[in-house]
Amino acid sequence: MPIQVVKALDLSPADIARWMELQRSQARLDSPFLSPHWALAVARAQGDKGEAVKVAIVRGAEGEALAFLPARIRQGVAMPAGAPMCDYQALVSAPGVAVNPRDLLAALHASRIDFCHMLADDETLARHGRGQADSWIIELPDGYEAYAAERKAANVGVLKDIDKKRRKAEREVGPSRYTAMSESRADFDQLIAWKRAQLLATGQTDLFKTPWVNDLVEALFQNRAPHFGGGLYTLHLGDQLAAVHLHLRGEHTIHGWLIAHNPELDRYSPGMLLFQDILKSMDGADYSRLDLGTGDYRFKRELSNARQTVVFGFLGSPSLPTLVRHAAYGMRSVAESLPLGRISEIPGKAMRRIDLLRGLH
After folding, report:
1. Distance between CA atoms of residues 286 and 252, nearest Å
2. Same domain for 193 and 269?
3. Domain check: are 47 and 27 in the same one?
4. What gap in Å lies between CA 22 and CA 17, rounded to an integer?
5. Mean pLDDT by 10-residue block, N- to C-terminus, for the chain (361 residues)?
6. pLDDT tens for residues 131-157?
7. 3-state class (DSSP) for residue 119
8. CA distance 315 to 110
9. Residue 200 belongs to a domain with what CATH number?
10. How far apart are CA 52 and CA 209, in angstroms?
């Protein structure tokens, strides 16, 4: 099958519509990160330059688009569009479409394709994974009360604990006030400030020093289109901003993205209160899923009632970049197999940090 590669910003309206049609045809693809509008938003934020976001389009005999894969090519290596801000990757394809991944490499003029959150059921690239993780998901097909009853039946008391903390917060601080799809510039700016402080305090890279990240986050905050965009969700206790989240919205999925809270109100777990408010507000709305993303945190395990496995790894042709990647994963595998405690985690952490910096610059 022929593969056409175009810049994301040169996608035709017909190809964008076809991409969205393929997404709608399979529940597994219902993520804002797999939308053509994610690739377009990233392309606008990063600018139309030599390393612009490109899209490989697999076409059938009659020229119809059968699959789409967005990527950013740097120094002959294809990376996920929008990495490290992108929480899902997949070849968005029609059911049963088989694509030779080597043909994708050749079409993209890349010696290697790296991925970090590839859907584990992706038939083209996931088999080249070198490890996996779980993305934690809350499914609410029958609304909040049915979900709460299911959590109670599973002997998970997280919602009861949240209710207790809300009552305590309202007694000691003030009544809670939830706002969905807030347009508050002040609250958005506070989210970024809290997030940067959190990254600094935990020794992580300040993502917001990178201009395209700021441009992307700003554009998504302002995008309130019905089937793709950002959503600013806030919780006030009395007159104080207690927690604020900027999530991505797909057609039926809200994906947890940037979350922060007022550190002075830690004891009330305001971020958890806000998650509960979001879940309740989904009743009767178009959304039936809140995706909490990867990360083995207790609150994700307790709130979630479903999981999506993702894999990290790479596919490469014989080349120096592929050899280097093989060596890095080999060292990581050996280290993680040894009973050295945190020392065993060093190669993996180093690889993730390097990949993060590659994506940002």
Report:
1. 6
2. yes
3. yes
4. 9
5. 93 96 93 97 84 91 93 92 95 91 94 94 92 95 95 95 97 97 97 96 94 96 94 97 97 96 96 97 92 94 95 92 84 78 77 82 84
6. 999 999 999 999 999 999 999 999 999
7. strand
8. 10
9. 3.40.630.30
10. 20
Helix residue ranges per DSSP H, the chain: 13-24, 36-46, 101-108, 144-153, 158-172, 185-201, 211-222, 270-281, 298-303, 320-337, 346-360
Quick one: tokens of 202?
Answer: 């935990």
Strand partners, 38: none
pTM of the model: 0.93
What pLDDT was estimated at residue 349?
77
Residue type (1 letter), 350: A
Tokens of 54: 């490109």
How far apart are the C-alpha atoms of 137 and 304, rounded to whole Å? 5
* 73 backbone dihedrals φ, ψ, rounded to 5°: -100, 125
pLDDT digits (tens, 9 = 90+) for 102-112: 999 999 999 99
Check residue 314 and report its DSSP letter: E
pLDDT computed for residue 324 by the predictor: 85
Are residues 163 and 185 both part of a single domain? yes
- DSSP class of residue 7? E
The phi and psi torsions of 4 (rounded to 5 degrees) equal -100, 140
pLDDT at 49: 59
Residue-number span of the structural domain to which 318 is assigned: 3-133+314-360
Q: Does residue 22 contact residue 94 with C-beta atoms inside 8 Å?
A: yes
Q: How many helices (H) and strands (E) does the chain have?
A: 11, 13
Helix (H) or strand (E) holding 248: strand 240-249
- Do 97 and 196 sit in the same domain of this protein? no
Q: Structure tokens of 290?
A: 């809140």
Q: Which residues, including other chains, have CB under 8 Å from residue 62's CB and lie 6 or more apart?
A: none
